[in-house]
Amino acid sequence: MFENVPSRELPKIADEVERSLRELASAGGLRAGRILVIGCSTSEVRGERIGTSGAEEIAALVYEGVERVRAEIGFQPVWQCCEHLNRALVVPRGLAEAKGWTIVSAVPVRKAGGSMAAYAYRRLADPCLVESLQADAGIDIGETLIGMHLRPVAVPVRPSVPWIGAARLTMAYTRPKLIGGERAVYALPERDGETPASGSCD
């Protein structure tokens, strides 16, 4: 079934996801309560073109890798659907209501939503889909284009293992925008009243 990914390599998928996610968490300060968007093409993981050969078995391994880190850190994963559901996201209903996200009506399946989103939807006690959100960080397995659901400004993280199975891995965390230009200060000065630039706004 996974002719382009040797069977002996399949158990490593969960390990690769875990390792990469720990690197992202460390680089981006991912902690309890933060939102992590995950896009994954299981077709790409197995070496096929995105949207052509989805596999629940691979989705289960990716989910396992994410859960290992989530159980320790406490961030909230949200799972991006494919383009046929407009890249809506699988989230717990309680979280969607608390955040005020716009809930949309659909149930992801392999052919409309993708194997990864379909698998995640069935693991949650009370799942729903939301139209969009702005996540604190993201992991993209197979170039599924998660950028539309990241807060500005995205900061790329280069993973030590740039592939999950046969799929290219892209990761990023976000940071607040730096505003103000050359006079702006982004950290408290060492002494009160100290300013790094001439001029005044008084």
Q: Could you outline the blueprint of secondary structure elements for this entry?
A:
Blueprint: H1 12-28, E1 35-40, H2 42-45, H3 56-73, E2 76-80, E3 89-92, H4 93-99, E4 103-104, H5 115-123, E5 127-130, E6 137-141, E7 154-157, E8 163-164, E9 167-174
Parallel strand pairs: 1-2, 1-6
Antiparallel strand pairs: 2-3, 3-5, 4-5, 6-9, 7-9, 8-9
The tally of strands reads: 9
Radius of gyration: 19 Å
Average pLDDT figure = 92
Which parts are unreliable, with pLDDT below 50 for 5 consecutive residues or more?
Answer: none
The N- and C-terminal alpha carbons lie at a distance of 70 Å
Largest sheet: 9 strands, mixed
Structure description:
The chain has 202 residues and is α+β, with helices and mostly antiparallel strands. The protein has one domain (7-183): Rossmann fold (3-Layer(aba) Sandwich). Helices cover 27% and strands 20% of the residues. The chain contains five helices and nine strands. It has helices at residues 12-28, 42-45, 56-73, 93-99, 115-123; strands at residues 35-40, 76-80, 89-92, 103-104, 127-130, 137-141, 154-157, 163-164, 167-174. Strands 1, 2, 3, 4, 5, 6, 7, 8 and 9 form a nine-stranded mixed beta sheet that branches. Strand 8 (163-164) and strand 9 form a beta hairpin. It is globular and about 60 Å long. The model has no long low-confidence stretch (mean pLDDT 92). Belongs to the UPF0340 family. This is UPF0340 protein H4Q31_05320. It holds the Pfam family DUF436.
